[in-house]
Amino acid sequence: MWSAQPVVSPPREIRQFAGLEDLSEAAAGEFCRIAGRVLAERRRCAVALTGGSTPRRLYELLTADRYRHRVGWDRVDFFWGDERAVPPDHDASNYRMARDLLLEPLAVPRAHIHRIEGERPDLEAAAVAYEREIARVFDVSPDGPSPAFDLVLLGMGADGHTASLFPGTNVSRETPRWVVSQYVPSIAANRVTMTPRILNAARHVLFLVAGAEKAEALALVLEGRHDPQRLPAQMIDPASGLLMWFVDRDAAARLNGWRADHLSTPA
Ligand code: 6PG
């Protein structure tokens, strides 16, 4: 059962776990609850996945018997919040990580897997193509209001970045685009990323943050001065959706609200 007291009141919920294993189990449970509720009411459920190393265990867990049977995976559409400028078989590909750990084991139909084409020489064209793909699947105009993902998974870097919205980015909450390409000087790499515009339209946003190296950034993002240019994760603030932060003990160590007796255990 969850602890009775989230550290911060809804609509932002912060749940603290002993370590990555508990955090991942809880995230798997939350994923299945959200997808199950959506699919009880609608034909399809749309999820945006995150890259990085933190979600690897979550993806593995979702394929375990205790979770895989809880969701009609053939009715879930999978997207990505960001992608690196690499081909889909590259070790650094966010698509590949999810494909290997989650999508192939669950036999998700190819037509429901919507990847960002990070291998394109023109990444801006890849970003525009991704906006069109999102619009096609949601059956809306790419020039209209953002569609609402049912669930967006996000990670956070030790510099406060999320998706590929890095400090100093010229993308803001007001940027009208849904997906953009960017050169990120701090990592000397190009990325394609969803923008706050579409991420904040989601019904549920779930951040997964683990590790002591994230502790300082997490405290600044959640409890520090509002400075989204320096801490892009602060731009994520869904207009009417639920924002959830699942953090482990090490990442939470510098939060004022941190108390060992607030630790949650996976439901
Ligand atoms: C990516 C991301 C990125 C990631 C964070 C955290 O493509 O790398 O989507 O935003 O979530 O960098 O990464 P870790 O989980 O590896 O710490």
Question: What keyword list fits this structure?
Answer:
single chain, 267 residues, alpha/beta, seven-stranded parallel sheet, three-stranded antiparallel sheet, 8 helices, 10 strands, globular, disordered N terminus, binds 6-phosphogluconic acid
What small molecules does the structure contain?
A: 6-phosphogluconic acid
N/C terminus separation: 5 Å
The shape, in one word, is globular
> What is the ordering of alpha helices and beta strands?
EHEHHEEHHEEEHEHEHE
The proportion of strand residues reads: 15-25%
Secondary-structure-based class equals alpha/beta
Number of strands: 10
**Stretches where pLDDT falls below 50 for ≥5 residues?**
1-10
Characterize the largest beta sheet: strand count, sense, and whether it forms a barrel. Answer: 7 strands, parallel
Strand order of the largest sheet: 3-2-5-8-9-1-10
**Rg, nearest Å:** 17 Å
User: Averaged pLDDT, please?
Assistant: 94
Q: Helix coverage percent of residues?
A: 25-40%
Please count the helical segments.
8
Describe this structure in words.
This protein is of the alpha/beta class. It has 8 helices and 10 strands. The protein has helices spanning 20-41, 56-62, 65-68, 94-103, 123-138, 196-199, 215-223, 249-252; strands at 12-17, 45-49, 76-80, 82-84, 151-155, 179-184, 189-194, 204-209, 242-248, 263-264. Strands 3-2-5-8-9-1-10 form a 7-stranded parallel sheet. Strand 8 (204-209), helix 7 (215-223) and strand 9 (242-248) form a beta-alpha-beta unit. Helix 1 packs across helix 2 and helix 2 (56-62) packs parallel to helix 4. Mean pLDDT is 94; it is low at 1-10.
